[in-house]
Design a protein that fits this description.
single chain; 170 residues
């Protein structure tokens, strides 16, 4: 099992660093999807809007992650029209679930590992899929991330691990 101890933070809403970190991660969550949307179905396949939410929540705590999780889809939709307004509830549900799961896992385990990130990604996807199924009434629509987005989930797990371990742990 690959495990690395990293310096993790638990930023509070009264700390200006919380808003700075969340702002930087929102910028990442706006820019990264634009790169992936250059290829057909890139957004649905690679799920880039969640990447920096995972990083932010894991590294800086669930509060910074929650700000990132809510602002990223809203800013993307408002500025770029992606995701469309009709898709926002499901994406917000998954994004908030990811922020909470990542922040709580980081606090509980105090380290980063591939199995922990796998569990975080599976947890938010399963809960989000069930919520989307309830909202939309279509199981087929709800399981799109599992049908098409497996590369994106792998990117979140492996890329998130490498990003947390190598780029922001020092």
């Amino acid at each position: 099992m690959v495990t690395t101890t990293v310096k993790l933070y638990s930023l509070d809403y009264s700390n200006a660093k919380t808003y700075l970190a969340a702002s930087l991660f929102v910028v990442g969550n706006v820019a990264l999807p634009q790169v992936f949307h250059l290829v057909p179905q890139g957004g649905q396949t690679w799920l880039p809007i969640y990447f920096f939410t995972l990083i932010g929540a894991y590294k800086y705590g669930w509060k910074a992650g929650l700000l990132t999780a809510i602002a990223s889809p809203l800013v993307n939709s408002w500025l770029l029209g992606i995701p469309p307004v009709a898709a926002l509830p499901a994406i917000l549900l998954k994004s908030v679930g990811l922020a909470l799961a990542a922040g709580l896992a980081a606090r509980r385990f105090q380290r980063v590992s591939l199995p922990v990130l796998l569990a975080v990604v599976m947890a938010y996807q399963i809960v989000g899929t069930l919520g989307e199924w309830t909202m939309k009434g279509s199981f087929y629509t709800a399981v799109q991330d599992f049908r098409i987005g497996l590369p994106g989930m792998a990117l979140q797990i492996v890329g998130g691990y490498l990003f947390i371990k190598h780029l922001i742990c020092r």
